[in-house]
TrEMBL record, chains A, C:
SUPFAM superfamilies: Thiamin diphosphate-binding fold (THDP-binding), TK C-terminal domain-like. It comes from the Bacteria. Residues 4-179 form the Transketolase-like pyrimidine-binding domain. This is Pyruvate dehydrogenase E1 component beta subunit. Transmembrane segments: none annotated.
Automatic annotation (TrEMBL), chains B, D:
Transmembrane segments: none annotated. InterPro entries: DH_E1, PDH_E1_Alpha_Subunit, THDP-binding. Its cofactor is thiamine diphosphate. GO terms for biological process: pyruvate decarboxylation to acetyl-CoA. Residues 20-315 form the Dehydrogenase E1 component domain. This is Pyruvate dehydrogenase E1 component alpha subunit. The lineage of its organism: Bacteria, Pseudomonadati, Pseudomonadota, Alphaproteobacteria, Hyphomicrobiales. One of its GO terms (molecular function) is pyruvate dehydrogenase (acetyl-transferring) activity. Keywords: Oxidoreductase, Pyruvate, Thiamine pyrophosphate. The pyruvate dehydrogenase complex catalyzes the overall conversion of pyruvate to acetyl-CoA and CO(2). It contains multiple copies of three enzymatic components: pyruvate dehydrogenase (E1), dihydrolipoamide acetyltransferase (E2) and lipoamide dehydrogenase (E3). The keyword Isomerase does not apply. It comes from the Bacteria.
Length: 325, 345, 325, 345
């Protein structure tokens, strides 16, 4: 058990994987000498050399395309997209190539690559550096999608992702890198694709992932302390595969569910979660599943506007209170 | 994985080059027939007639372990590299017996056994993969090269330049092969760029770059030999092959945007005929021997149609297979989901 | 009133707009001399010249980017993306530029451009030429999204789109181009953003758009004839803006709703529609809103697999029967 | 729309060029101060210190009606083109009083009145817009030019080549201006490409292309004059300006990846200092006059901080504004939606 950060746990996962498997290479902008825009890959180039920690030109489309080819040719590439906001440049390689190769070619080969990236608000980085675009990925069959919320998962989920036979988009949250936590790298993690019940509670179920999980947990604390409301909180961990089996009994018991996502509401992850929970638990619901999600607007650089463009702990608390009034 | 048709590891001379070009030509003619008989899966069939020297000339210098990607007009390249034409034809017909079990079709054929990392229906889509394959070769210290084949139209795609830049920067064993058939659909190359000397772009990124005339398969093969050898040694290369697209863009296009005189002149640049004439004139092969060779090829290719037509349709149950690896759960079918939720299960 | 096709109506809309407004230009691959991959722009280059009907190189990203700049500089560009499947190459220009410019720049300027494209199955065109990717667009604030299902709307919706102050992605369906219908170009169309009730019915409401509307209508016919089931059918016409006001009373009356979309189910348009209808009509629903959508798989070239990868009229009929059993 | 600072329509000589460069330098220093005082919106502040000659030299040949796009390091260009530094600073502070009312910030400033079609936080993202602006100019037969400013790092982006190809093909009044400060974040240009002679790429696409040394603002201005005049006449151009990024990539980066000696040498190539020295040595201006000019500029720029700091935060109600045109409905806030559905309204 060590005390580390989300960033440190990610770096540890990469280090361990690279030590274990010669085929693992990291490639992306500034991943080597610079150590990664958010410092995740710091030092790796010294340990593993330039052939395995590859600094690339600013060519997002070709980075992903090269990772696809590398994976097909036997490497286990971990490509880094500096901000998920740049995914637009890579969507063809990601959605038309990586995601479809196994299927189009009749199962001859898979594309075991990772696209590591980070998203979310919190740094006044403006409309093109603060988005939460996981819905694009979730809507693309063939792509796995993992979004760690905890220090533990920063390590274990990344390690698991790196063993998947299919392409995984792995989205970190820029607001979590400095978060501290305990990590036992030898612990048995929750299985890949399993959600984790972070907190039990029979009044309302809050389903979330990534940084919003912490907002949900904070809200649940407040609700308990100030209102005696018991909120269950679930960390989805992966959005593809997605685990409704864990959620279902909780919602059936509570009769109320809220989904919390930083992505914009319309046609986003929250819509899928709400639709699916409704399908699974319809007869048990007292209210429609409530979507607490990003506003349907771009993110402002103004810290004030930025903050209120996505769910806050206070807002989650307030919504839960409204639901239980 | 797949039994390979004899494709020489080095340029073993004009007879072989001719034979492979003829096989490509005849195969493509049969694809046309398959369509006319209503047995192809769709009409997005892009024939490489007129471009045989590119496929054959370049592939004659590929070795075991080399990899490549192709474009939407890639039948000839794959065949030249040793594909089984019957399984190709079956794939083009959308059959279970095809290379990709009917999921891929003409534009998405692949064969990992032959190092074919895949044809692509996205113009330029297959190009960056060779950079990755080149990295794998470099890191694994394997003496292999990876080739991206694409059309002149793909020079409009930014990803080509991103890929060439990376290949040159990292000195990867990679070659970019541009089959310049003068057209991207209805757009003539000079309507798509102010400077059609395409190899100059590759040069500007630091690649070794050449343009050759596709009329002469031996010239193509020689240039390929030199550039591929260089690429293997860490000097990534670019080769443009000038040729002419004999027919329409896809099977239904009659190329109304091209003048008849231009087409006639273009079709005069026939690398297959040229090689044949040369073989006869230089006394290397007799016309009767060539006729016999052609007839044998015709027979081989006729059989591909029978194989394709008689193949089974894919099973409906295969629909959810291969989205993910076999050991993974298949996606839940919409029907199952709906039945389940309406039954409240 | 003229008899024309979906394709003819689109061409008429472009022609009329170009005659009316000098600033309208069409740009894209093969839109000029070739007349468009699906023939929509045939002849326009002869009438309006090469400066207004601009054949471009195969450069999807720059086509959209150039349209953005053209719109900012005073033109009214109609960019064509030959297949919506190629949207991956344009997503940065579309989502980070076109969609956000007005907002990021504090309302100084808009980007009144159209991105015309087509999608859907039906031509054995394979995994990279048969997709329905409207969800990516719907999930991007700032982009309007129109998807005509009828000959009338091929004309009127495109004309309306070309008058919008903001970027509109206009997605046609490749299976509809030869569909015949009556067109009155001088008729007053339904307002931009209004859904259209194509058929009344009090047993179940089927909400759809684009080609699946016709599947829904066919299913409704069968249901009436064979089962006496009265299905209301709604054509959404635009997905942004989206008109729930029209849907709500119908669903409240019927108590059952089905949404039909050709896009893949997970995190797709059907999820948004289902979530939203549930939110609006919760107390009236007898069953969860049923999502009939594309399977979560790529599209095969095999005509058999292709056909069953998306909703068929038979399947819609069957689902309605299951709902009303 | 906006009152313009006097920017000469043509190169009116070194004193003016110096003055504008000094204004850029001082402005950027104040941006750094704003950050240190904790008053900037975030830390993504990319200072253009060392690159002043590019901004000022090129902009000195832009006219009314010309348009341009810039990159994430675009303060200097905008200022050189006539921006109001106070509204810029307010925007950088995320204030209502800024150019974009606090929504854009340092990386998303724009001013339609000055033809500034926008800064961009996507490397290469603003480049293709000038092709569209060029089309608008051509179709409207307007005698204007559109310029894309970007860094050397953007030469990794495919969209640059797509855009240059279009500009050359259509002979648009467009110029591509590459400010080569030798680094893209921590990556030196020779670590990003095998051929750093970037103008050769533009040439290969058919553009008129040059590289100039940014140390000499007059050389930059002269090259810009020539190329811009050509672009106006339908000869699209590319200009690379060699300079050095004096500080870190963004405000917090201390450039540990650069050797001290290299940095010292790089900072020796100071176009502002060079112009100042030249003015004195050639007797055009006295040192005391220059000191006075500098002091006046310092005062002007000090005031921008006060303006920025004292400005209001944007109103919360502005959050939903300008997603769509003012006459359109604003997006429904999540709160409203939830209240409505829970109240069953
Ligand atoms: C990204 C993308 N854009 C457009 C198309 C449509 N398209 C298919 S082939 C083609 C022309 C390609 O020309 P070229 O690369 O020269 O190949 P050729 O057909 O001549 O062999 C076009 C525009 C496509 N498939 N993919
Ligand atoms: C598409 C994209 N990729 C990566 C980044 C992250 N990033 C911001 S600036 C930068 C370096 C750009 O270098 P250059 O173009 O030379 O401009 P400079 O910073 O030197 O002025 C990078 C990689 C980005 N903003 N956008
Ligand atoms: Mg071609
Ligand atoms: Mg730079």
């Amino acid at each position: 058990m060590i005390e580390t950060t989300y960033r440190g746990a990610l770096r540890q996962a990469l280090t361990d994987a690279m030590q274990e498997n010669e085929a693992v290479v990291i490639m992306g902008e500034e991943v080597g000498r610079y150590g990664g825009a958010y410092g995740v890959t710091k030092g790796l180039i010294d340990e593993f050399g330039e052939d395995r920690v590859i600094d690339t030109p600013i060519s997002e489309a070709a980075i992903v395309g090269a990772a696809v080819g590398a994976a097909m040719a036997g490497l286990r590439p971990v490509a880094e997209l500096m901000y998920v906001d740049f995914i637009g440049m890579t969507m063809d390689q990601l959605a038309n190539q990586a995601a479809k190769i196994r299927y189009m070619f009749g199962g001859q080969i898979g594309v075991p690559m990772i696209l590591r990236t980070q998203g979310g608000t919190g740094r006044s980085a403006g409309a093109q550096h603060s988005q939460s675009l996981e819905a694009y990925v979730m809507h693309t069959p063939g792509l796995r999608l993992a979004m760690p919320a905890t220090v533990e998962d920063a390590y274990h989920l990344l390690r698991q992702a790196m063993k998947q036979p299919d392409p995984v988009v792995f989205i970190e949250h820029k607001g979590l890198y400095t978060m501290k936590g305990e990590l036992d790298t030898s612990a048995e993690p929750a299985a890949w694709g399993k959600a984790r019940v972070m907190r039990e509670g029979s009044d309302v179920v809050i389903v979330s992932y990534s940084r919003q999980l912490h907002h949900a947990l904070a809200a649940a604390d407040t609700l308990e302390k100030e209102n005696g409301i018991q909120a269950a909180v679930v960390d989805l961990r992966t959005l593809n595969p997605i685990d409704f089996a864990t959620i279902r009994p909780l919602v059936e018991q509570a009769g109320r569910a809220m989904v919390v996502s930083e992505g914009v509401m319309t046609a986003g992850v929250a819509a899928e979660l709400a639709a699916r929970i409704t399908e699974e638990c319809f007869d048990y619901l007292e209210d429609p599943v409530v979507r607490v999600a990003g506003e349907d607007i771009p993110i402002s650089v103004s810290p004030l506007l930025e903050k209120h463009s996505v769910p806050t702990p206070e807002f989650i608390t307030e919504v839960a209170r409204m639901m239980l009034k | 994985m797949t039994e390979k048709n004899s494709m020489p590891g080095s340029n073993s001379g004009l007879p072989d080059l001719y034979r492979h070009m003829r096989r490509v030509r005849t195969f493509e003619e049969r694809v046309g027939e398959l369509f006319v008989r209503g047995k192809s899966a769709g009409s997005m069939l892009h024939l490489s007639v007129g471009e045989e020297s590119a496929a054959v000339g370049v592939c004659s210098h590929m070795h075991d372990g080399d990899t490549f990607t192709t474009h939407h007009r890639g039948h000839g390249i794959f065949l030249a590299r040793g594909a089984d034409p019957a399984r190709m034809m079956a794939e083009i017909a959308g059959k279970e017996t095809g290379y990709c079990h009917g999921k891929g079709g003409s534009m998405h054929i692949a064969d990992m056994g032959l190092g074919h990392l895949g044809a692509n229906a996205i113009v330029g889509g297959g190009i960056p993969a060779v950079v990755g394959a080149g990295l794998a070769a470099r890191n694994g210290k394997k003496d292999v090269v990876s080739l991206a084949f694409f059309g002149d139209g793909a020079t409009g795609q930014g990803i080509l330049y991103e890929s060439m830049n990376m290949a040159a920067l990292w000195r990867l064993p990679v070659m970019f092969v541009c089959i310049n058939n003068q057209y991207g659909m209805g757009t003539r190359i000079d309507q798509a760029t102010a400077n059609p000397r395409l190899h100059e772009r590759a040069e500007a990124f630091g690649l070794v770059a050449r343009t050759v005339d596709g009329l002469e398969v031996e010239e193509v093969a020689d240039a390929a030999a030199e550039l591929i050898a260089g690429a293997r040694a860490g000097k990534p290369a670019f080769l443009a092959i000038e040729c002419y697209r004999f027919y329409g863009h896809a099977r239904k296009d009659k190329s109304p945007y091209r003048a008849e005189a231009e087409e006639a002149e273009g079709r005069n640049k026939d690398p297959v005929l040229r090689a044949r004439t040369k073989l006869i004139e230089s006394g290397i092969m007799a016309e009767t021997d060539l006729d016999a060779m052609d007839a044998e090829i015709a027979q081989e290719m006729d059989a591909t149609i029978d194989f394709a037509v008689s193949g089974n349709e894919p099973q409906m149950s295969s629909m959810f297979r291969d989205v993910y690896a076999p050991e993974e759960a298949e996606p839940e079918p919409v029907r199952t989901r709906i039945e389940r939720i309406l039954a409240r299960q």
